[in-house]
Design a protein that fits this description.
Elements: H1 13-21, E1 37-42, E2 47-53, E3 56-59, E4 65-66, E5 68-73, E6 76-83, E7 90-97, E8 102-109, H2 113-116, H3 120-126, E9 134-142, E10 154-155, E11 162-167, E12 173-178, E13 183-190, E14 197-208, E15 211-218, E16 223-230, E17 235-242, E18 252-265
Antiparallel strand pairs: 1-2, 1-9, 2-3, 3-4, 5-6, 6-7, 7-8, 8-9, 10-14, 11-12, 11-18, 12-13, 13-14, 14-15, 15-16, 16-17, 17-18
């Protein structure tokens, strides 16, 4: 295994997508919501109506967009789509929990190439975040007005200290080490990024027992990753969203799913 990568080993998100495509363990689209309508009631009182038709989604009666719908747990769905009419394009991901009639939404945007070109050293000296990948995370109620406590999804520390192995395909294998409430480390053990690793900003939410929403924001190649991790069934599913090879290239927004296993739990001494 190569453990000392050169600068040429970093690839674009489009290159990563090609690596993940061969033999991908991505879940098939769920048809459970086909023909149904769902209302999302936000904390600010706004309401959106979602109408599903196989792999198409119409919002408030507007033009349908392509949506990916998967389910690791019965009656809990991960919805993902892009709004490419906005500039920059906006990523929408919703955990639709029909067991508790609640949802969590993640809205993501990527930086422009002008922003990307700002070096990490300059960002650090100026007190800027090392990544300009941005997310807005919110919660709400499904098919009923929002009220305090309507959504049980909450930030969690249950993954902190965990080291997990993720097999995304026969050729792509990674490990994650969840360091603290703000950062984790990824390491490619096998695949197109073999030998590469980094520590990036992240967010953790508990959706149900042993079911987590994990979000990360990379800084070297600006990337937004959003996955559900089911530690009961040893599966994960989600997506990676990132810039293209050039400023004019299409954005990458591709599915990724894995068979996963826990490698270790870190226990720190009590006297820290």
């Amino acid at each position: 295994m190569t453990t000392t990568p050169s600068h040429t080993d970093w690839i674009s998100v489009a290159g990563l997508e090609k690596g993940f495509a061969t033999g991908s363990y991505a879940l098939d689209n769920s048809a459970d919501l086909t023909g149904k309508q769902v209302e999302l009631h936000a904390a600010d009182g706004s309401v959106r109506r979602l109408e599903f038709d196989q792999d198409q989604l119409a919002i408030d009666g507007g033009e349908a967009v392509k949506v990916r719908i998967t389910s690791l747990r019965e009656r809990v769905y991960l919805l993902d789509w892009l709004d490419e009419r906005t500039r920059p394009a906006t990523s929408y991901t919703v955990v639709l929990d029909t067991l508790t009639d609640s949802y969590t939404q993640v809205i993501g945007t990527l930086p422009t190439f002008d922003v990307i070109k700002t070096g990490l050293y300059e960002r650090a000296l100026c007190g800027r975040p090392l990544t300009d990948v941005k997310v807005d995370i919110s919660h709400g109620a499904v098919n009923k007005p929002y009220s305090d406590g309507a959504c049980p999804h909450a930030k969690t520390d249950e993954l902190i200290g965990v080291r997990n192995l993720y097999r995304y395909s026969p050729t792509e294998v990674y490990e994650h080490t969840y360091l603290n409430e703000n950062f984790y480390t990824w390491h490619c053990l096998k695949g197109v990024e073999q030998g590469l690793c980094d520590t990036d900003a992240c967010h953790y939410y508990k959706i149900a027992d042993a079911l987590y929403l994990f979000i990360w924001r990379e800084k070297i190649v600006p990337t937004l990753g959003i996955v559900m991790i089911d530690e009961q069934n040893h599966r994960s599913d989600g997506k990676i969203f990132g810039v293209g090879d050039t400023e004019d290239a299409p954005l990458a927004n591709f599915p990724m799913a894995s068979y996963c296993q826990r490698l270790a739990d870190t226990e720190y001494p009590d006297d820290l």
